[in-house]
Each structure stands twice: as C-alpha cells, then as structure tokens.
Structures
1.
Amino acid sequence: MTTDVKRVALLGATGSIGEQALEVIDAHPYLEVCALASGSQPLDELAAAHGVEHVQVGGDLTRVLEASEPDLVLNAVVGFAGVGTTLWALERGVTLALANKESLVAAGDLAVAAWKRGGGLLLPVDSEHSAVFQCLEGRDRGTVDSLVLTASGGPFRNRSLPELESVTVEEALAHPTWSMGPKITVDSATLANKGLELIEAHYLFGLEYEKIEVVVHPTSVVHALVRFRDGAALAHLGHPDMRVPISYALTYPKREATPVPQLDLAAGLTLEFGAPDPERFPLLRLAREAGEKGGTFPCAFNAANEIAVGAFLEGRIGFLEIAPLVEDALARVDGAPANDLPELVEADAEARRLAGGRLAPV
Ligand SMILES: NC(=O)c1ccc[n+]([C@@H]2O[C@H](COP(=O)([O-])OP(=O)(O)OC[C@H]3O[C@@H](n4cnc5c(N)ncnc54)[C@H](OP(=O)(O)O)[C@@H]3O)[C@@H](O)[C@H]2O)c1
C-alpha cells in the first residue's frame, strides 16, 4: 500500500518543538519537510540535511508558506510572531498543527472566523489540547459537560510568596516534568502558560470559560480530562513527552508509533490533583478574566506577558513583578475587538507599549 507524501512546513525549526518535530518527521518517509523557518538562527545546515529548498529566517513567514505550498503547517514559533502564519493556514484550509498557542490566544475570534472560512483541520500540539481533542473525537458535543486541563504547577508549586520573591531565572528555567524553550518554561512557573491554554481551549473547542477547569497535577501524567453529562470522565494519560502530541498531529489520523515507552502501571502510579493557588499564581486568574472579557483582552494579556517574561529573563524584574505588570497593562488597554490583522497588530503593540513603559530604563 502506498502512502501519500505529506509536505510539512516547519516554522520554529530551531526550537524545542521544532527539533522534536524533525525527529518525528525523520521516522516516517511519507513526511517531507518542504519549508523551514526560524527567528534569527541560520538554517543552512538543517536545510541541507533535509533537502529543503524553501527557507526563511525572520520576517513575515507567510512568504515561505506561499512559496512552498505545504500540505501541513507546523507552527512552532514562540509568541505573537506566529499570528500571521496561523491565520494564513486557517484561511486557506491548510492543515495547521498548532504549538504556537499565543497566536490562537491573541487572534481569538479572527482565527476562529478564518478557520470556519477555510474549513481545514486544526490539530493542537499542546499536550493538554491534543489530549482533549482525542477524548472528544467522535463524540457528540452535546454530551460534553466540561474540560479539565492539568498543570504541573511548575518548579515553584510548593514555594511560599516570600520565597517566590527571590527566585532566579535559572530556578524558573528548571521545569520539573517538561523540557521546553525558555519563554514557555517561565510561563509554566507563573501558570501564565495554563492561562494561555485556558483561552486556547476556549477557541479550539468552543466551550465557555466556566466549563474549562484547571487543576494542578504535579507529575503531568494525565494531560487532560473531558467530563460528560452522564458523570463519566475520559482522561488522556502518558509520559510527559512532546513527541507524542507532535507525532499525533503530524501523522493524523494514523497515530503512528513513537519511541516513547508505555506507562508501567504495575510499578505503581499515584495520581495527585489539587486546586491552583490564585494568591501565588495570579496570572491564571488574569488570563481567565481577559478571556471572559473577550475582544483584544486576550491579545493584551499575551503581549504584556511576553514583555514581562522577556524582562524577567533579562534580569530587569523579579519573578513576582511579572503578574502586576500584566495586570496593570490589562487595566489600561481598551480591549476593543480587532476587525482585521492590522487592528490586532495595533492592539498587541499598544499592550506592549503600556507594559514596556512601566519598566525601568536599561
Ligand atoms: N516546548 C514545549 O514542550 C512546548 C509544549 C507545548 C507548546 N509549546 C509552544 O510551542 C511554541 C514553541 O515553543 P518552544 O519551546 O519550541 O520554543 P523555543 O525553543 O524558544 O523555540 C522557538 C522557535 O521560534 C522561533 N522564533 C522566535 N521568534 C521568532 C520570530 N519573530 N519569527 C519567527 N520565528 C521565531 C525560534 O527561532 P530562533 O531559534 O532563530 O530564535 C525557534 O525556532 C510556543 O508557542 C510554546 O508555547 C511548546
């Protein structure tokens, strides 16, 4: 039996997701990289190794998509920089494997409208959303009660507020269960990542915020649950390894094998869950509020958070100053809905200006 070649445009090829995606692609001859893109790192070696003609470093990455005509776009760029390519794929009905959650959070209604017009597949790569997607497959949406997204709680789950005051960048970058790029690792430590995922889940699955719960689950074995109206809940379990959701999205609907081992339940597995602490991790609440307000509030949440995380990584602000910076920016934006991409870009820029304006000059 022959398998049709799937031409993959890999955006964010030099990152953590990008590298793991290349490993998955290399394991399946029918997956072919047709385009590679990064923000600033050169791609010549990678392009030569994979025989890729279309390459782009920085700038408007929709150009490399236009040139390469992919069957699937894996958007693994970090941050708002991924918005243009997410909208490009959704508008054209080109299958989008989405790791870049920030683009769906920021573009929100615009992205959903483009997705409806394009009519293509949107396959989540975020492990929690991939888990929800799989638990929902083939189910009648009317039977769904609610979703539960799990959060590891990050490296500071057990630290008190005074202890959080002095955490270092190195400590924030040492995630207990997942190995990821620096921005998402800090977002995991503040729980902003779970806030972004909450908004992402709202747009992906069309559920109201009150039907999406976040629970802390330190070992990250259960990735998400879907509760149904009869009292049953379906959960998705596995080792925390991004190659599983990446492979699921890239090989969909085949669910190809991966090198990730099975869970050894007989060896003993304790599953612990608890409520996130809103006092120590206010960004989750701020994300929920921004999501519920709608308009460009989620875009502003994301933009201010990107500025704050950048400032933390540069040592310009402390860990506990990230959330107030975001809260302050959210209080000052108008949050009016964006009618098109230029308006969205303006809303993003405004929130960045407001958050950046509160930082002490370097
Ligand atoms: N890592 C994970 O386990 C994980 C899990 C779930 C979701 N995600 C999501 O996946 C996305 C990527 O995360 P990551 O951990 O792979 O990040 P990462 O390791 O920091 O990699 C980011 C990638 O984006 C590229 N990039 C940065 N700025 C860009 C720009 N302005 N234009 C074009 N490309 C740009 C980088 O290129 P350069 O190397 O040239 O800077 C790099 O290839 C994020 O949205 C994250 O939230 C990640």
2.
Amino acid sequence: MRKLLKQLISSAPTCDNGEIQAVKILQKFLKEYGINTELDCWDETHANLTASIGSHASDAGTLVFGGHIDVVPASAANWDTNPFEAVEKEGKVYGRGACDMQGGICAVAQALADIAQSGIKLNGRVIFSATAGEETDSCGVKRFIEQYKDKITRPIGTVVPEPTSLEILRAHRGILWLKIQTHGKTAHGSMPHLGINAIEKANALLNRLKDYKIPHTAHNLLGGCSMSINRIDGGSATNIVPESCVVELDIRTLPGQNREDVIKSIQRICDELHENDSNFKADVSIIRTADALETDANDPFVKAVCTATGITRTGAASFTTDGPYFRKLNAPVIIFGPGDGTLCHKPNEFIEIEQLEKARDYYKRLILALITESQ
Ligand SMILES: [Zn+2]
C-alpha cells in the first residue's frame, strides 16, 4: 500500500499533468490481484479508472467507493522535501496528495486487493472509481456517473474516502462563487469629473455587502451560510479613471438552500444601488458552483457503516467533495477516509501510515458486512 502511495505521488497528477500515469499505476496494482478494471481516457491528459469485485448478478447490491486521483499543484520552494517524491519519516508519508486523497485511494485499493486475494465470495458487488479533475471542474466524476448510473444495480451507498481522520461525515456545504463587475466610463486621471469611476462604484457595493447576511435558516450540523469578499480587481493605470472593477464573492450554501434565491438577493442589492445612483451599473455572474451534501443520520446505510466500523458519531465536513455527484446514483453518500483534512492543499502535506492501515481495515469490514452478511 505504501509502495502504491509513493508511486502515485511521483506520478504528480496535477491539473497540468493529468491523471493518465496515475490511473495506469493504480490499474497495474489492481490487476496484480486479478481485479477487473476499466480505464476511461478521453483526452490527452484526463482519465478515470473504475474497478470492481464481487458478483455480477443483476439483482446484487452494489457498494461504491469514489475518490479523486488528481492533486493540486505544489510549489517546491515552500516544501521541506520534493512534493512529488514521497518521503517516509516517523510513520508518515510526505508528498503532494498523500492526504488529499491518494491515501484514501490506496486504502480502498488495498482493501479490494486483500478481499480478492482472500477468496471470500461476495454476494454483491463493490465498485471503486478513481476519478479525474475534482480540484478543477469534477470532469471525472461527471463522466463516471454518466457512464455507470444505469449499470450500477441496487446501489447501497457511496463512500468518498476524502481525509476525515476516519470520522464518518455525512454533510457539507456547497459552493457558490459569484463575480460582480461594476462598469464606469474611462477618462484622463487629471479630469476625473469627465469619467465614471468603476472602483468608486465597487466601493459603494462593498459597503453594502460588508454587513449583509444572506437570508437562510441555520443547519444543525453545518451552521450558517457564509459569504466572504475574497478578490477585487480594478483599474489599469494610476492616471486612468477605471471603467471596470470586479469583486468576487465566496458563498457557502446549505443543503436545501436555493442557489437562485441567493443570486437574486445579491442582484437586488445591485438594483437598489442603481435606483439611488443611475451611474451605478453592475452585473452578477457565476464563477463556480458545487452542491451541498446531506445524508440523514438515521439512513440505514449510515447506520450500517457505524455498526460495521464501531464508530458511533457522525459529523459534517468543512470542505466540499464530489459527494453530491455520487448522490446521483440514488443512494446515500458518506465521506470517510484516512488523513487530516486540515493538511489538504498545503506544503508538507502528509499521511500517517497508521491511518492508512486503519482505513483499509475499516473498508474491508464495511465490504464484508454490507456485501456478504446482509445479502
Ligand atoms: Zn480532495
């Protein structure tokens, strides 16, 4: 498992490099245990790998594991070691992706390998998909769902092995990133009265947004919907009145919250500013969205995972995942994987080997409990 992790880290499946090399490494590992795999490569860089074990009977239940194999880039200057050359030290493996989330990928792969090798007969099926592009546009999981939605019989549930320090998480907020562009009229910087200053218009907007609370009802696990003004970009030169200024908002939405209503509430602020000042002109557009996730604590799948692992508490993740896409399989989704989620996307990211081994053992228990005994 450690060898596989080190090889995956060296394959550096960043947005620029793509996942092809990484999925081939994973495929080779799984094939050595006689596990069926399907490689789906759709351009020069992107690829998914989907593996399965167990019965292919049409009425068999299917447990899905789905995780992303791509990683965010790393700037070597900020690391103590080479981010794309795994280093093992004091029970930890350091490297980009060790925690987010090649550790989880390796733990699932090893669990499948151990079960395949043991010769235990499964009454159902386990599908494991390592998908591309989660850190950019989730292109991989979208393809996986499209291709496999109708092929997955009786889905029991999906486990997303993102790093949760092996806590069972069943909810997270969604993403709504908005761009608001204010428009002005350019003029020579020495004659500002001849222009309309888009930065000043953005300032009026910022003053309104600063204390604005998006209407919502707080969620018992996730708290509130938040909004943070995280980027501003305006003007071209010190002596030119700016004709454009862009403000970007990071809004985190709650399960059940209507995205359109949130956008309308921001649009309403722009409309009010325009009513008070006819020179205030702005448009609101979407940069990126991702759905929120919520699986009921009393869902039979959540209960079964708790029973199989002996973990009684469930919670919520602070980050978003591909989980909502897997929800399209019409089965519950949980986030449950090795590694400390606070290390994601940071220099000197690592995973504890003990976490990897525990995760592999939990996944094996889960497969055996859900796919053999309960069928
Ligand atoms: Zn991740």
